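ok so I'm stuck.
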Amino acid sequence: MNKYALLLLLTLLFSIPTRRSEAPRVLTGIDVLVETGFQSLAGRKIGLISNHTGVDPAGVSTALLLHRAKGLELVRLFSPEHGFEGKKDSKVGDSVHEATGLPIVSLYTDTRAPSEKSLEGIDTLVFDIQDIGCRFYTYISTMGEAMRVASKKKLRFVVLDRPNPINGLDVGGPIRDPGRQSFVAWHDIPLRHGMTVGELARMFDAELKLGCDLQVILMKGWKRSQYADATGLVWVDPSPNMRSPVQALLYPGVGLLETTNLSVGRGTDTPFEIIGAPWMKSVALAESINAAGLPGLRCVPIRFTPKSSKHKDKLCHGLRFWITDRSSFDPIQLGFWLACEMRRLHPKAWDLKRFDRLLVNQRLYDAIAKGAKATWVMEQVSRELSAFRKRRAPYLLYK
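replied:
not stuck anymore, here's the structure
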């Protein structure tokens, strides 16, 4: 072989693209349960708290997997907000699960917890729902209420753990005021808690002294630094208006404003990626937010017309958000910056009297209402987070 042929061969060899090794897929709690032959639930009579997000890698529901499993009995299903299929945006009634024929008891009612009648014939409650890492996303509140009942009734409570899709490292936002528990502020945690549902269950049990017979089926392969797109898991919209990991990351900040008279994009294709109102000074607001130089974020003024929800069929002036670097982006910082600038630019048009419903922090609410600067607000918030990180440390299950 002459040197030209050898050179050509080497060129071809080095130009062939090498196959990149795929990152191992995270095994969720249900995956591990299946892998171990359902040993943790052997002989148990089970009530499953789940919805459409409780699935294995092939899309088979946890309900069907438990129904088919030998050595245990799935007695009844329980559904959270949005129902078992995750499609409803209103009150959810009881129904029947088509695939198994089992009754589905709604937990999104006035009581928000399993009734004594609904627990008949059950000795174990299993929880398998995908959370998004935000305090006012109500699936964790449903878990907490069910844990409280399980403790009183001496039932075992098993959490099939799933990833925090916006990572398990970053925390942000104020802690709820003492004594102000609600379904959107169930425990003393910040707006962005940086924990999995299994870790939260451990915190709830210990800090509220529930004395729950709690077991967490740990994931395999999940790292705290991972976002949803690094897990190898299929994204399933956790609720009708939570359609992407980007929206989940924006939600703790942008969602904070939706109790006011702003549209946060419900009724559009991009909920929580946009905000607006017919009266908003969108150009001035965009200039102000961009001038603030918030890390990992840019925004542009837009116009949109929601097809449903707030400001339905009305032309809204607003902003669209781009996350340019999620490692440095802080959704809480964005939320407070928007609130403070909305107060400055729209002192009369922006109605913030219900802003504290999700914030649940009277001191910060009063300060924003009086025109506080966003930099001051964030300084107050950061002081609380150090103590929370220490509080949550004993309950963390992953590195």
